[in-house]
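User: My collaborator sent over this chain with a note saying "see what the structure looks like." That's all I know about it. Can you take a look?
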Amino acid sequence: MNKNQINIIDLFAGVGGFRVAFQKANKNLKGEIFKVVWGNQWEPGKKVQYAAEIYKRQFGEAGFVNEDIAKVKTEDIPNHDLMVGGFPCQDYSVATTKKLSGGIEGKKGVLWWQIERIIREKGKDSPEFLLFENVDRLISSPAKQRGRDFAIMLACLDMLGYMVEWRVIDASEYGFPQRRKRIYFVGYKKNSKIYKSFKGNHEDWLLNTGTFAKGFPSKRKEGTVTVIELIKDRTKEYSKVIKDVSDNFNKGGKTTPFRKTGVILDGKIYTMDVIPNYKGKKTTLGDILIDEKDVPQEYFIPKEDLEKWKYLKGAKREKRIQKATGFEYNYSEGAITYPDALERPSRTIITGEGGKGPSRFKHVVKTLSGRLRRLTPMELERLDMFPDNHTDGYSPQTRAFLMGNALVVGVIQKIAESLYEKM
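Assistant: Without extra context I'll predict from the sequence alone. Here is the result:
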């Protein structure tokens, strides 16, 4: 690898969050260090590929493939130094109940095996580094065998020749404008400089010298260290090792053994909880709002809808009846801050943020004139730290959906800069 240029493939690219982050990192590093040489985005079952259209418009069509990744041959993917991907996470998402989530066996979860396939089939030409993002619930999926899915992923990468570290990061705890908690994991091939720099002190790596420690300072939460022997015999056939992990990891366990940060090397996992130790600038919801006079009237809540919004946002304890069965049950939920606090980071953007209809989960802010309104698409882009109007040209609902599916660009930028520093 040329240390002055890191060639990247961008899997499950969405509207280009990783790519925007690399562009910002390059600007800080004063050079084209990170270069995306190939990207892929495909949304199954969609006639219009909105995300792919935006990606091509923003970054060009060179090296971009809008096709099901399962149909793309490994030999048609260029060799690269860094593989990145926010692989689809609906099967682990808190938007569905734990029992309904399909985990790694679900329609979206199976896309992990496309990542595994590319790395495995690249063989000696597999990338030197890996960077993946997913919902934090991944470490406790599925409900019937807590942590199994993440354990399978770690076992695959370990057997394929990588040391891997992970960190669950809430973007707001490091100064970014949105409370969005995700898991990020980075892999280092065993002949890489970073891998060779590991001196065997797991705790020091996670708190002081590792990639996440450099970009996201934290301190250890006392009494939370767990050591797991994930792979007892690494000489066994690859497929048998993975099957053994799938069949037996945390069988019968009611809670996941994985904590907020950890590292796996040679089949052994060291994991612990950490507390953020950030002292820098903090951005709030109020910081990203556009001037009231520039907000289209359609985003202001009509007076006749105010009580419906208030009800949906408020605490409830009431009897409800299932329409299909007639079963009566007690329903309760707590209140959501209403309107949203401008002096704090925003709540997590969800895919259903768009549209005029009253909703418990959509953001509502109070303007200087005292009126209540929803957030505009550009404000949602700012909460994810995209350039203004990155998704312009599509309906507000579509733009909100795409931002709900996106990531906080600043987190990836910080990881990229920290990774480069480690290199």
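A starting point for your reply to your collaborator: Confidence is low (pLDDT under 50) at residues 90-104.
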